[in-house]
Write a structure and sequence with these properties.
about 675 residues, Rossmann fold, 4 domains, 23 helices
Length: about 675
Amino acid sequence: MQIPGSLQTQRRWLLWRDEDGRKVPYYAVNHRRRSGAMDTEDDWRHLVDYKEAVRIFQDSHQQYTGFGYAITHGHVLIDLDDVIVDGAIQDPWVKDFIEKAKISGAFVEVSYSGSGVHVLGPGVGEKAGHKGVNIEIYTEKRFVAITGIGFGPEQCADVVGDCTELARLAYDEHRRRVNNRQTQTVVNEVRIASPDGSDQRSIIDVLLSAFDADDREQWVKVGLALGRAFPNDDSVFEHYQVWGKTSDKHNGQKDDKAMRDIFYRQSSMPSASKYTIDTMLEELSSAWPSRAMINVLTGLFLDQFGVIESAISTATIEFAWDRHVLTLNELENRPAPKRFIIDRILPAARTAMIGRGGLGKTMLLLYEALHVASGNQLYNRHDILDPGRVLIVTAEEERDLLVRRSSLLLDLLPWRDDVKKTAFTNIAIQDVSSKVPRLIGQNKSGEFQVTPWTDKLIDGYKKSNIKWVIFDPISAFGMNENAMNDSAVVIMEAATRMSEGLNGAAVTLVHHTSKEVARNNIVDSHSGRGGSAFGDASRGTRVLTSRIGLPAGQSTYDPETRTSRLTLHHVKSSYAAPVEPMHIDVVDGYDIRTVDSQSEIHDADEFWKRIEQIVAQEESLTGHSPSIEVLTRGTGLGVSRNVARQRLMDGIAVGRAVLTMHPTDKRKRGIQIVKDWNGF
């Protein structure tokens, strides 16, 4: 046997024996089968060097068939199957590759079958393997049966060279061959199985044929995805089971039971899953250089099943000065201003409504929706500039509950019966609470993408002349708590796509506040839970809080009159001048009244006079504005610290003051008074 010295000294050796045509590895030190967790300290401890493996092999009285080398931590094996025919290699690429391997100093040997070639050595690479493709790459959790039969008359080098570049070349060729084989196979099978695309089960077989049943990871993911898409569908399971049995690794009844458990348990799992039909397709797209067949399969499943949860899409971005330069025609004929559905507060764009749970966001939006649907002025101050239909997509409340709330709100509005009927029938409520679709999803690499469900919504409603779409709450439609900024950017992209696809409808995403924001009534465009991208991307943001700036002794809820005192802050408007906060009283849950704030102005003015005095004193003593903590302790108006903080936030919201960074403690924020502020 020709074994390089640098491999002989490695503690990676074990023994193997032929068991019914399968190469089964055993630890030489204790004669136990190598199974369970591999590439662990316990696994490495039981491996030996070549000299020790030879000694144990000779003492075992022919118990083993041969020697094995563990592919772990820093070694790579390139396995070329069935390339030697009649003692020679006919494949030009394989012939050239083996010559490169010899020149690089890799260990090259003939495989145990006599028809394959192993290329082995230190290095890193991408794992690769696909049924019907004779190039496989292994980098971990594997062993190779070593023959020591060199390929060709040359003696192998004593020190094996690095195989990283060889692994890259092999991986590129593997992908090319997979693409060629799958493109031909899938095209032919699609034509044969379903010439007109109507035979759904045959299309499933086509999809399954594109995956390798020998890959246990894919074997599991495919079962999870099909079980989620077709819960408890026996015929789909049968197709999955037949596909699984095509693997030589299928372990009889044990694997049959595992496949059944994987498939059928999905019907009782939560609706969200990282393994879906779309992730199967994305797995294929990452393996195929050409996107032609992935588009074929995506189209088939979109048309036939409607179960894909995230898109595999490509974007063409043209970088050219002439295409984007400003023109004199645009100077002379400036574009129209942004259209508003509700004057100053609801642009025909992506917007947000933020507030803590249970405060009344949904109720208030129903109230506003009735006004848009009727065309009547909202809150006695905001005209409805583009009245019409409103679509509410709810993932939190059941449809019947929202219908009841809408009718109770209508009962208390002073409108004619015909106007009420028009308003009521101009609202649609789509309840998806039992199975929430995702506006966005993650691909295999973890990137967020807009899902086909977004486009399906557009296609379903684009002829309905909808003016306003509300998603409540947006956290249920794909916002990811662990990647809030990344998911927020893409979910806003989905909102923009819907706004444009629905002929310029406003799209409002309802979002919850964090616990800290809810406790402290912090009011700004970033009051929503998670990162800052949600508020940054919104074109109009409103925040609903308990009443801010109440006089001392007043509560945000009056149990005697059953009145909730709220404040609606218009914290961001990209297309209109700032709008002052609006105080709202909700009586008995459905009677919504705007509050004239003139009675509260005197108390607020006295409060701010004292604040200005404290700021002036602090600036004269320290040279900088006081922190919020100092201000809320020293107002001297007989109000609690929380009320003082609320009044400060109220003033900041209307531009009476601005937040500053404390010069000596970056964790603290200060207040700077706006000298020329003259009210709302």
